[in-house]
Amino acid sequence: MNWDFIINYLPLYETAAVLTVKIGAAGIAFSIIIGLFCAMVQNYRIPVLRQIVTVYIEISRNTPLLIQLFFIYYGLPKIGIRTNAAVCGMVGLAFLGGSYMAEAFRSGIDAIETVQTESAYSLGLNRWQTLRYVIFPQAISISMPAFMANVIFLLKETSVFSAISLMDLMFMAKDLIGLYYQTTESLFLLVVFYLLILLPVSIAGSLLERRLRHAGFGT
């Protein structure tokens, strides 16, 4: 193991890690918004929108992120829509993640008994109040394991961003391997930085799941 190489190129990996986290966090944030919207459309069976959401989910979940990125980065410019690599990565991650988040949130909402909604209405709560105080707290608790699994999945999917020349962690590793043939050292740094990103998220997710287990909000 060439430790001098690792020390010299550690700052480049740090920069790439920051970029990876920024784009990953932005993509996940937008995927949550998309997922909530799609879950509500499906739950309330809104005509036309429900069919559009179903088509979107099927396309998103059944095509690889790499293909989606290629379509956004290389295909959309053909019709005059141009984006840089960072925006393309964020949009691609949000497009993929939105469908997975939608299914996670929908499963949580569907798990709530109808009698709870009816009881809320009988107490005088309107639809928004019922969603805010009765449905959402329980649905979020139930869907938390799937939600955290999706967050970790999407962060790992950032590894394909290098295909559109985005200087993320994977791009940096491949670039250094191609330049200096220090494969072991480059991959070692890649693994270490992905662990530094994903392990805290995994631990935080486990703690949050425990705290919100089955809508208990604490043990």
Report on the architecture of this protein.
The chain is mainly alpha-helical and 219 residues long. It has a single domain (3-215), classed as MetI-like (MetI-like fold, Orthogonal Bundle). 79% of the residues lie in helices and 0% in strands. The protein is built from eight helices and no strands. It is flat and about 70 Å long. The mean pLDDT is 88.
What Rg do the Cα atoms give? Answer: 21 Å
Helix content: over 70%
Number of domains: 1
Q: What oligomeric arrangement do these chains adopt?
A: single chain
Blueprint of the fold:
Elements: H1 3-43, H2 49-61, H3 65-75, H4 85-110, H5 114-122, H6 127-157, H7 169-180, H8 183-211
Helix pairs in contact: 1-4, 1-7, 1-8, 2-4, 3-4, 4-6, 5-6, 6-8, 7-8
Briefly characterize the structure:
The protein is mainly alpha-helical and 219 residues long. It has one domain: MetI-like (MetI-like fold, Orthogonal Bundle), CATH 1.10.3720. Helices cover 79% and strands 0% of the residues.
Could you name the key traits of this structure?
MetI-like fold; mainly alpha; 8 helices; 219 residues; 79% helix
